[in-house]
Amino acid sequence: QVQFVESGGGLVQPGGSLKLSCVGSGSTFSIYAMSWHRQAPGKQRELVAALGSGGGTTYADSVKGRFTISTDNAKNTGYLQMNSLKPEDTAVYYCNVAVRTGLTIQFNNWGQGTQVTVSS
């Protein structure tokens, strides 16, 4: 069983930066694909960024040019670099990882979330 834990959230002023990490542990695995999602109070969870198995990336229009998704399989870790943060980026951020374990791929491995608050 693979588990992922996010970290790196916190309070930052508008215009600031944060880098979220999503670290996996458990069985021997490699990251096949991953995505970051966020949920603000009273709103539905939304996709922020995705990194496919072929290396292609997708970003929500609201974060294009500001956020960057990446992975480091040597560290079993995925990242979300967030620059030029805005108050509307305030939310709980979750990673969702698909992992390859041997010949199988396990989807929908969610982290527990990390709070990002953008405020002056």
Could you characterize what this model shows?
Strands 2, 4, 5, 6, 9, 10 and 11 form a seven-stranded mixed beta sheet that branches. By secondary structure, the chain is mainly beta. It has no helices and eleven strands. It has strands at 3-7, 10-12, 18-25, 30-39, 46-51, 57-59, 67-72, 77-82, 91-101, 104-110, 114-118. The chain is elongated, with a radius of gyration of 14 Å.
Helices and strands in order:
Layout: E1 3-7, E2 10-12, E3 18-25, E4 30-39, E5 46-51, E6 57-59, E7 67-72, E8 77-82, E9 91-101, E10 104-110, E11 114-118
Parallel strand pairs: 2-11
Antiparallel strand pairs: 1-3, 3-8, 4-5, 4-9, 5-6, 7-8, 9-10, 9-11
